[in-house]
């Protein structure tokens, strides 16, 4: 640890704090029901800081809400946190106040939203406080930005407030003013929650208790307003479930035809795929109100901006601090997540789903096998979460971890003098183990290291076509093992008793690309599916490039970046490691632009061993690449011709696709032909036309 740069050491500590252990109180939090009951007590106790600064916000439809600033808005701070309380709560309840106090201590300017008609604000329109108030979040956020010009705005929502926050984020997409958000114990699928709350006697009793609280609140607000005549008071008095309250009060006042329409309008599930800012979703496995089974985990999983943390204990907003009092683990968790909330999105790597990292004895993770002690799991979607204790075991582990964390931040730091150099990177199986028992490193990732192993074998030959001094250490045993397995298919290609087909193909295509890069006149390189390509570090010709953008999956970039950081190798041009999922429309463009790619500069676009993995997304990927290419750019595309399936093309199909996207001077080179041979193709064997390169120029 002493050899780490200070910024990497700080980053290590930040992540440890963000993922720190939660120790539930042995009595007050031994079950979800007890945790929920205990948090409910705090909700009704007198607030600790009830004064603060209140201001009324007039909404566009004439309704009024209020903001409760923990300290006056003129107080210095450029980070504002908007807290959205749950159903039957407002800013004066103790757990909301405790949250505001904690976030204030972390440097956030905390302010809580009181919904329409709550906290002594008169009901000016029929729209009473309920989940449909998510439409007000945008206006309130804009009001805050006017009150605090230039501030960064963050969001934290509890239960219904969390659902409202998620619904806003999904509806607004990239237009939301929030920089990052945290949702705690929120209903994500309203119809599923409704079904759950009527599924057993216990659930019906919970339903009754919540409805009773809502009834009391609504009676108090409605009976003193002019809108009481719009509802059937008898239905309100007889209501025993939330569904009854919705039908009797919410629907007529908000103009919904029925509860189904109300739920359709408010449920976050319909738009979570559009959330575009880092968002942490926290839930407890033993939540008796919003059962874990109602959370659409697969929907959340598909959005790379959504992070999910599931604890074994905690009930419904019942996470304590391990002792007595209103402090909560979720307050600290939210603060640290929001501090790191500008981390870039990570691609969904096919076949690579890090289940999570272990940090204690009280958590379970999404999809994780339930371990005997139910270990702590925190799942960062499409990012790398690493097991602290396992990495602390070795110095190299700490170096690797620091490099990967810096990579997540998009700022891999140079390694301090004295660090180990030339250290072989461990196998991807070790990476998989660090990610969790059920994690699986993608096949695409493994082939990258297999190709490195085959380059290493060529480097050892006396008459080598190229020298790659990094390949052996990069590939490790994992890559070599996968390369040997491909030898089983050699016979069908006529390579019996001779170097396996794929090894020869790797050597020939590597030399072919080397020659093109040496002769290239373009000023930028975009290596799409770069794997563990080492050309920026071994080809002096790369000095002509303004930058080499190495685009691949997170796990491959992580290991590759850590290796070169430790080895002390110097690249011949600036190297930007870019993470992108080529199957996600627009992600390549966004990731390259964020990395500094200049669209007006002619570039070489290299696609080596990628297209057939993309299958049905291959055409859209080539079209997106074409939109990034300035006139004079060169495309070098390794592709498979057959058998015909998504991701493969005939020469005619590929030529037409590229021509339609503005490319010309189209040339095809097949394996074993004059240009793709170098004396390594088996003498007397016909060229293998199913393995080829296409080279063309953007007109």
Please, could you describe this protein's structure?
Helix 1 (6-18) packs across helix 14 (395-408), helix 3 (94-105) crosses helix 12 (329-339) and helix 16 packs across helix 17. The relative contact order is 0.08. Helices cover 38% and strands 15% of the residues. It folds into 3 domains: 20-189 and 268-379, Rossmann fold; 192-266, no CATH class; 490-698, Vaccinia Virus protein VP39 (Rossmann fold, 3-Layer(aba) Sandwich). Helix 11 (297-301) links the parallel strand 7 and strand 8. By secondary structure, the protein is of the alpha/beta class.
Question: Topology, pairings included?
Answer:
Blueprint: H1 6-18, H2 32-44, E1 53-58, E2 64-69, E3 79-84, H3 94-105, E4 109-114, H4 134-147, E5 152-158, H5 160-172, E6 178-184, H6 190-196, H7 201-222, H8 233-238, H9 242-254, H10 259-266, E7 279-284, H11 297-301, E8 306-311, H12 329-339, E9 357-358, E10 377-379, H13 388-392, H14 395-408, H15 428-435, H16 443-459, H17 471-486, H18 501-519, E11 524-528, H19 535-538, E12 547-552, H20 554-567, E13 575-579, H21 587-594, E14 603-607, H22 611-614, H23 618-628, E15 634-640, H24 651-660, E16 663-671, E17 688-698
GO molecular function, one term: acetylesterase activity
Domain Serine aminopeptidase S33: 78-291
InterPro entries: AB_hydrolase_4_sf, AB_hydrolase_fold, Hydrolase_4, Ppm1/Ppm2/Tcmp, SAM-dependent_MTases_sf, SAM_mthyl_Trfase_ML2640-like
